[in-house]
Structures are given as C-alpha cells and as structure tokens.
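Researcher: We're teaching a course module on how sequence relates to structure. For the next exercise, students receive a sequence and then see the predicted structure as tokens, so they can try to spot secondary structure elements on their own. Here is the exercise chain.
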Amino acid sequence: MDSSDARNEDDDYQVLVVGAGAAGLTLGCDLARRGVRALVIERSAALFPGSRGRGVQPRTQEVFDDLGVIDAILAAGGPLPRVLSRRPDATLKLWDLVEPAPAAAGVPYPVGWMLPQWRTQEILHARLRQLGGELRFGVALTSLSQDQQSVRALLTRADGSTTTVRADYLVGADGGRSTVRAALGVTMTGETLDPRASLVGDVRLTGLDRGNWHMWTRAPGDTLSLCPLPGTDHFALSVPVGEGPVDTSPQAVRAVIAERTQLPAEAVLEVLWTSEYRPRAALADRFQAGRVLLAGDAAHIHSPAGGQGLNTGVQDAYNLGWKLGRVLRHGAPPRLLDSYEAERLPVAADVLQLSSRLHHSYRGSGPAVARRAGQTSQLGIAYRDSPLSVETRADLPEEALRAGDRIPDLALPQGRLFDLLRGPHATLLAVGRPAPAGRAAELVVREFAELAPLGPGLFVVRPDGYLGLATQDPAALAAYLDLLGRG
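Model: And here is the predicted structure for the students to work with:
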C-alpha cells in the first residue's frame, strides 16, 4: 500500500481506476488535478519494472506538458539513437529508425523521446502523489457489479483479505489480460502477428558503445536487438526465440546473446528484468459498458513496431479524464462519456492497423521502418466526426483548422498558446470579437484581435487540446457549453 494512503478503504469514490500502468497513472493524475475523488489500485506490489514501452511520441509529450511532467520526462530520457546494423560478414550499416523530424510551426516537441517505461511510470506516480492522488499496491479486483447509480467492486489485498469499494465509475486500465474486460464479458477481435515468441528484457553489459542501437540483423534465428536506455546503464534486449515455451532465465539471456552476437556470455553483468512476448494485435469490441470503461491495453493490444501502445493508452486516459471531471464536478450530462468510445475506438483501430503494418514490413532491413515518422507521432489524430466537434463556419479553405483538430502551439506576442491552455479547464478563444456573457464558470477566456490560422470567430478548445467548437454564432456557444456543463 502506498504510504501516502490515509483513507478508509470502505469509503466511496467517484472513480476507481484498476491498473497503475501508464494509462492508469495518467488518468489518476488528470482526475486528481480536477478534484475528482479517485482511487488507483494495482495488483502488483510495485510499479512495472521493465523498459517495454520506451518511446514517448510527440503528441504524448504535449499531454505530459499539460500534466506538469514534461521537464522530468525530458530530463530522464533522450532522443532515439541511430541504429547500427551488424551482419555476419562484419558489414555495418548506420541508419535512422525514424526519420529526423524537421522543425514545424506549432509543434513544440517534434521528435520522439526515449526512456524506459518504468521511469515514465515513476514520474507519473510522483506527480500523482504531488497532486494528492491515491494509489494502493497489492490490491486486485476480484469482481464487479453495477446498477444505474454506481459500480461496486470486490477488492482482494495481498494478504487475502477483501473489501468492497463503491464508485460512480470504474475504469479498467489493467492490461491485455484485463480482469475488468473479462468481468464485463467484452470480447477482443484481433490476430497473432507472429507465431514466434520473443525474449525481451533489460540487461547491464560491457563491450558495446551506448551511442547506437545495436541490431544483429541476420543473426542465427533472426534479429537480436540491444538498445541503450537513456538515464541508465541498461540495454533493452529483444530477440525472437521460437514458437515453444520461452526460457527467461538469466542463463538463457546470456546464452542467446553469446550465440547471436560477438559478445561473450560473461559480458552480461546483470539481468534486471525479462519476459516472454508474443506479438498480437487486438481491439476490444466496446470501450464502455454502463458505468465501466476500458483504457490502454485493456482496450487495445499493439505490436511494439512504431511505439504506439503506451502512447495510445496515455491519450485514452487524457481523453477520458476531462470528461469524467465535467460529469462528476461540473454538471455535464452523463452522455458526454459516450463520446469517449466514439472518439477513441476508431483511433485505436487506425493505430492498430499502422503498428501491424509496420510489424509485417520490418524484417531487419531498416529503411521500411525508417519512413514511419510522420505516421507515428500521433500529431495528426483528430476527432472531426465526434459528437463533441461542432463546426458551423462555411466555405473554409482546405487547409483550415476545423472542429475536432488538434490545436497547434501557436506563437503569441506573450509566449506560447500552450502556456495559456495548460490546466484542467476548457478555453474560449474569442478572435476578432468580444466574448459573449453567460459563460461556463470553468471556461477560461482569451480574446485576440486576430489569431492565425483560426480566423475570426468563437472557438472552444477542449481540455485535451482539441478544437471542440468553431463558430461565429454566439447561440452555438451557449448550446455547446450546456453539453460540457456550466458548473
């Protein structure tokens, strides 16, 4: 149990979050800063110890900026190293896994950032504690039931004792083998991407420089990868090992490295974490059943190709957190939560197609994967078809920002637009006209004589940085604020 916990376990909560991975911790942070009484539980005794989801995409960095952890993320990590491919004939080839992204207007974080998943989760956990959020380790969800008013969850502690918690809503962010999803009876549709299992892990070793990501692309049995992890003296190991059971022991790690590289077994000084991994892509048929919602790997399982899994889960949580906050704290109608599945399920489906396509294209050759930068940044994700995207302007040019699009970080005389948007609030941008009276209490108003590329009008920027309403009609603003809640 987190030492900061002082609440009676039988208390009611507004939200129960099951799972303290990146998605669950992000949601916990977002709810805490909104004043939502939430409990995050994690069946393990500690945070996940491995590096598995180690790429933080540009859009996720923007999320972390808003949550107040971007400085820690940038300090702990580093850019993706260049790949050094080694072949049996001693030929070396140096290439970029992701093409270097050119500087672009409105994009404060143009390149992906690498840090091990355990470090990302440590940073989010520290932020959760700072915000007064509550996390309990060694607590598992055993069963749940719900009615029209609440969800009741039976929780089992590490010592076998149980307690029941009532919550207004429950979010399952408990991974690919989600207990929450199973309890709901929600099925997943997907495919096995490779019949072979991979041995993955984190090791300390000697004999390799830390300036490159090392790949033995035609090693016996297929490619072996050793990637240096920024901020540590660790390397992340990934290697296909066959279709049968996987030996994840330190001895097996040393043996496979000695077999497929020029390094001797004794070069592996320490094996810090290992796991068996079988590439699969799958999507839950629903992301919501009544008062229970799914996020992260509980809702979608990705190939690691393209670095999309952790990022998509973080953005699930970012999409859901403000909506729960509006319903629970500001009087928004519960139907606002219906937009979560409407927005995030199509995004997850598209991302799964991308990561699966990249997985199949990557056979150790390099260049096929190197062309993926613009696709994997997640900056292009938009919700134009969402019920929360209301566009009433006519005759817009093709390149115009529309309701549902991500708002770029526009340059302002007083600094960055993102600095004005940061926080749990929605923002009204009144461009070329005064803001109407009778606004929502939690709506921050910014007036501009002009603001390219928006043009004149009234624009509501959602708390997650997407353009919700774009109009020149004050009556449309009033109706939109009713949807978001005026409390």
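Model: If you want an answer key for the exercise: DSSP finds twelve helices and 28 strands in the chain. Residues 13-77+110-191+283-376 form a domain with the FAD/NAD(P)-binding domain fold (CATH 3.50.50.60).
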